[in-house]
Amino acid sequence: MSATETTRQLIDRVEAWIEEQNAVALADCFRNLPVDETILVASRLDTDDQILLLELLPPDVSVDVLHALPFASASDLVEEISPASAAEILGEMPPSEQADLVGEMQPEQAEAVLALLDESNARRVKSLVRYPDDVAGGLMDNHFLALSRDLTVAAAIESIRQRASELSDYDVQYVYVRDVQNSLVGVLRLRDLLLASDETRLDRVMITNPRSVNDYLPLDDLREFFTEHQYLGVPVVNESGQMMGVVNRTAVEQALGERNADEFLKARGIIQEELRTMPLITRSRRRLMWLSANIVLNVIAASVIAAYEETLQQVIALAVFLPIISDMSGCSGNQAVAVSMRELSLGLVEPREVMRVWLKEVSVGIINGFALGVLLAGLAWLWQGNVWLGGVVGLALMINTTVAVSIGGTLPLIMKLLRLDPALASGPILTTVTDLFGFFLVLGMATQVLHLLK
Amino acid sequence: MSATETTRQLIDRVEAWIEEQNAVALADCFRNLPVDETILVASRLDTDDQILLLELLPPDVSVDVLHALPFASASDLVEEISPASAAEILGEMPPSEQADLVGEMQPEQAEAVLALLDESNARRVKSLVRYPDDVAGGLMDNHFLALSRDLTVAAAIESIRQRASELSDYDVQYVYVRDVQNSLVGVLRLRDLLLASDETRLDRVMITNPRSVNDYLPLDDLREFFTEHQYLGVPVVNESGQMMGVVNRTAVEQALGERNADEFLKARGIIQEELRTMPLITRSRRRLMWLSANIVLNVIAASVIAAYEETLQQVIALAVFLPIISDMSGCSGNQAVAVSMRELSLGLVEPREVMRVWLKEVSVGIINGFALGVLLAGLAWLWQGNVWLGGVVGLALMINTTVAVSIGGTLPLIMKLLRLDPALASGPILTTVTDLFGFFLVLGMATQVLHLLK
Questions:
Q1: Interface contact flag, B35 A224, Cβ < 8 Å
Q2: CATH number of the CATH domain containing B85
Q3: Same domain, B196 and B226
Q4: Separation CA B24–CA B61 (nearest Å)
């Protein structure tokens, strides 16, 4: 069984229409397709068909198709279609989304598309493209409603009424009030405007000294801002106090959600966002890069075993316990990584507090190490009938669990201090070090008491 | 170095004030504390001090403290403080948050607190508590603005004006329009109200047949809804068509973000949300439960090694490669798990499509298995000078990588089909099976060609 029969049939029909260039049937089909079907159908077409589809559909429907696809796929596609189609489709998006897509293009393609956008829109997009994705400027929408402070409520409503059609694409929440220098001086909720009398000047009903954020404020600080304040959006101002746009709460929450999902992938060596619709070779290569580095680290760790071949030769049962100690230490260490990552992301711990986290973590390590060590010692004793063998593997696991949680708990903080990605901590670095040390403990101690183990 | 000097000093001061029951100083301090400091200070107090703090602070400040803490900590605390204080603090929250907290309480404590809330609020909270957290009813806010369809715009504005102070705590986005049976018949954006003339009846300016969702609609379907529609919120109706509340986009995005973060923890055996401020024994016990199950599975897998002790005795070098094959297969399998989890959460694959995913994944497995197998074979050959040894470990890794990605890619889908949590797939089940099979491959093949390895 592959896709459902109906999904399969639908894909076949869509492919046929694309081949016939039947724009009407395609528009009709995708306009009425629920979003989950759109995702399935659009993501399963091959790239050539996806490109043709986007060029054949009316721009407002193409936008829905692009929205349904993961961002990486959407940006790859927009780069492949003709600049004219791309510009038409971008015209249907808010400037921040346009900037995200243009930011992913090759410079020439970006230039070609920007030249075809209408001038004010192109200017907006250009001013957004220069910001990194994870600062206020990169997350903001620069389409906002700003009115002069000396307008009356009636004049403000009249001005909004005139721009009603332009505004209808945006969920306007607040009206921003500016002075003659274009600096932000106040903010008005639509409700305030609704409840005020016609002749009141805006600066009498606005909330003065509105909070704003700097255009280079990082995502984590924005998260804190929206935790602290129950706003739907916050104005973004540049160095000289001019209002550049609005960061909405939803944009921040979406970016945080994506970062979370990213960490899950990164911890497993899926650095770029892989999808099974990508070419086989791309997918294999990306995973292999990480795996090859990992196998080298594995060989380094295993070389400790080779150094003790003589001990192993005499007590072959030790070979049974090496993978157990390697795996269990890795698991304990990864638990500590997960807790540290969560505490970092909730702001419960600061990167500098390595010592505090280590003290908290080492206590868990000693307790769990003791419990797991005793368990493994008992199993080994029962199995091999040698209490000393039990003692060696149990003590090794005990010590190595403590080492693993110590490293696992503090590594994400240290990575953060070094401005590296803490999500990468849980993988190869941790397991290589705990393997090295674990093998050394088991085999080193066994060598010391070799005569008792035989 | 533990916390910053100033944070430490601040905590000491707060502890002193709590001891002196200095409510004024505490209120003054926490009212002006930035949210990141609030998190650090509040989370580091011991539980008794946290309880006293919440009881000493004015309710509107206590709410900020609770918001700063992770939900699990906040709900534990609210359960510990006196019902009178709890009711006062809950009174400062929207009903959906109250319901989340009340839902976590023991029944008697919940009864006591509900009895102290004002009647209409208590009714709202009770109607929310019965919904699970991950359906529309559990995510909705049941504080909304509904007006009768035959009101004029002027009367509607007058009615909103009268309720202005009550509404000021809520970010009202839409006005819902109901008929005499209390059924939802339309929706109005505040902007529409602002732009309409005074004498117009609401049902002339409202958007008719508004989209709504059922109160038991699951989170994933809500995600699809908000992907499909650019709304800020959607009305929730029960079976009989009555409007129950509003699910906001932010509530859905927040719930999805939390679920993502949860998966990261679950995959590492941190099932309950652990924080380092929790008692040591709780933290150790939770991690140990998972680790103990894991060590048993590890022992089962390692027992394959024990069954081949004789082979191992004769070719001791094999022991070096067992942990490598175990670790590398686990990594490859976990990459496949991560990609499947992501595709599931993006809606790019349906749980029934096990066969399709397997076909996509097995191709990557064969390519990567081949590359890693050749690499390991080469290393083994160079190291031990025996081409047959290289062949055995290389071939074993090759086959086992293919097995690992096959299991890893399909297991999350199978878990989902069986209505189990796919996040649990990547842990012990996967590694136990790949370890078992990997050890069996290396040692089984080595036994077959034993005379060539010596």
A1: yes
A2: 1.25.60.10
A3: yes
A4: 12
Task: List the Cα angle A133/B33/B252 in 5-degree steps.
Answer: 45
Single residue among B209, B240, B264 that ends a domain in this structure: B264
Average pLDDT for chain B: 87
Question: From the candidates A320, A344, A352, A411, which should be mutated to test the interface with B, based on the most B CB atoms within 10 A?
Answer: A320
Distance from CA of A108 to the nearest CA of B (A): 31
Query: Across the interface, do A276 and B357 touch by the CB < 8 Å criterion?
Result: yes
Q: Which residue, A238, A265, A292, sits at the end of a domain? A: A265
Is B18 in the same domain as B160? no
Is residue B302 within 8 angstroms of chain A, CB to CB?
A: yes
Chain B residues in contact with A330 by the CB 8 A cut-off are 327
Same domain, A301 and A421: yes
In this structure, the number of other CB atoms found within 10 A of the CB of residue A120 comes to 9
By the 10 Å C-beta count (0-12 exposed, 13-18 middle, 19+ buried), A266 is classed as buried
A191 to B173: CB separation less than 8 angstroms, yes or no: no
How are strands ordered across the β-sheet holding A174-178? A146-148, A174-178, A184-189, A207-208
d(CA B385, CA B97): 67
**Predicted local distance difference test score (pLDDT) of residue A368:** 95
Tell me the nearest-neighbour CA distance from B181 into chain A, angstroms.
28
Question: Pairing mode, if any, of strands A243-248 and B146-148?
Answer: unpaired
Mean pLDDT on A251-256: 84
Least Cα separation, residue A378 to chain B (angstroms):
12
Whole-number pLDDT of residue B1: 36
Chain B residues touching A313 at Cβ < 8 A: 313, 316
Q: What is the pLDDT of residues A202-238, one digit of tens each?
A: 888 888 888 899 999 999 889 888 877 777 789 999 8
Q: Write out pLDDT tens, residues B245-257.
A: 889 887 888 888 7
A288 and A416 share one domain: yes
User: B317 and A332: CB-CB below 8 Å?
Assistant: no
**Whole domain around residue A227: which residue ranges?**
146-265
Q: What is the DSSP secondary structure assignment for residue B353, as one 8-state letter?
A: T
Measured between CA atoms, how close is A35 to chain B, in angstroms?
A: 6
Examine the domain organization and report whether B296 and B363 are in the same domain: yes
Q: Are residues A308 and A197 in the same domain?
A: no
CA–CA distance, A173 with A170 (Å, rounded to integer): 9
CATH of the domain at B293: 1.10.357.20
Q: Could you report the average pLDDT of every consecutive run of 10 residues in chain B (454 residues)?
A: 66 94 93 86 90 94 88 88 92 85 89 89 86 89 85 86 64 80 85 81 88 92 83 87 86 82 79 79 87 90 92 92 93 90 85 91 95 95 93 97 95 89 77 94 95 86
**Residues A69, A117: one domain?**
yes
Residue A243 lies in a domain: yes
Tens of pLDDT, residues B388-420: 999 999 999 999 999 999 999 999 999 989 888
Strand, helix or coil at B175? strand
Claim to verify: residue A152 and residue A101 sit in the same structural domain: no
Tell whether B257 is within 8 A of chain A (Cβ): yes
Q: Which of B161, B264, B322 sits opposite A260 (nearest CB)?
A: B264
A44 to chain B: closest CA residue? B348
B260, B305, B350 member nearest A257 (Cβ):
B260
Is B338 close to A35, i.e. CB distance below 8 A? no
**Would the CB atoms of A350 and B298 count as touching at under 8 Å?**
no
| A75 inside domain | yes
The domain that holds A226 is classified in CATH as 3.10.580.10
Nearest-by-Cβ selection for A190 from B190, B363, B435: B190
Q: Is B66 part of any domain?
A: yes
Query: Helix axis angle, B107-116 relative to B95-104, nearest 10°?
Result: 150
State the total domains in chain A.
Answer: 3
Q: Indicate the pTM of the whole model.
A: 0.82
Integer-rounded Cα Rg, in Å, for chain A is 30
Let me know if residue A275 belongs to a domain.
Answer: no
